[in-house]
Design brief:
It is a single chain. The chain is of the alpha/beta class. The protein has a single domain, classed as Ribose 5-phosphate Isomerase B, Chain: A (3-Layer(aba) Sandwich), CATH 3.40.1400.10. The chain is about 45% helix and about 15% strand. The chain is built from six helices and five strands. Strands 2-1-3-5-4 form a five-stranded parallel β-sheet, sandwiched between helices. Helix 1 links the parallel strand 1 and strand 2. Helix 1 packs across helix 5 and helix 2 crosses helix 3. The N and C termini lie far apart (about 35 Å).
Length: about 150
């Protein structure tokens, strides 16, 4: 498993902190797009989400409030990105929604962000039928084969 991480200009400090901490235990890959005062969050979401292995890798995206970059990430086929604000969100995103990417607001306290990321990384997809069924509907819709409406 690789961990991919990127941010727009507002999340650079948090991104650098997370990279330094996560590299102690994980293979961490970053966006090849440089940050500057006029960068745009969709570019980072598309870069990371298109590079990662959707089944085996984890993505971490950071922008001002975590919403825009999450919306952009979810446009990439095979990505299920959740904006996460706390450890409960991180667990639910992985267990219930099989998220492979999380987005964080740049304003999160660094140690709290690391705690959230570590919980997300170590959580597992639920084996409960209701969660599998719901995620399968999302996958089916994305493939154009959903016919339950």
């Amino acid at each position: 498993m690789n961990i991919y991480i990127a941010s727009d200009h507002r999340g650079v400090e948090l991104k650098e902190y997370l990279i330094n901490e996560l590299r102690l235990n994980y293979q961490v890959l970053t966006s090849t797009i440089s940050n500057n005062d006029k960068d745009d969050y969709p570019d980072f979401a598309f870069d990371i989400c298109n590079k990662m292995d959707k089944k085996n890798d984890i993505g971490i995206l950071i922008c001002g409030n975590g919403i825009g970059i999450s919306i952009a990430a979810n446009k990439v086929k095979g990505i299920r990105c959740a904006r996460v604000l706390n450890t409960d969100d991180a667990i639910a995103a992985k267990e219930h929604n099989y998220a492979n990417v999380i987005s964080l607001p740049a304003t999160l306290e660094f140690k709290e962000a690391l705690k959230i990321v570590e919980i997300f990384i170590t959580s597992n997809n639920s084996k409960l039928e209701r969660h599998q069924r719901r995620v399968n509907k999302i996958i089916s819709y994305e493939k154009g084969t959903y016919n339950e409406l």
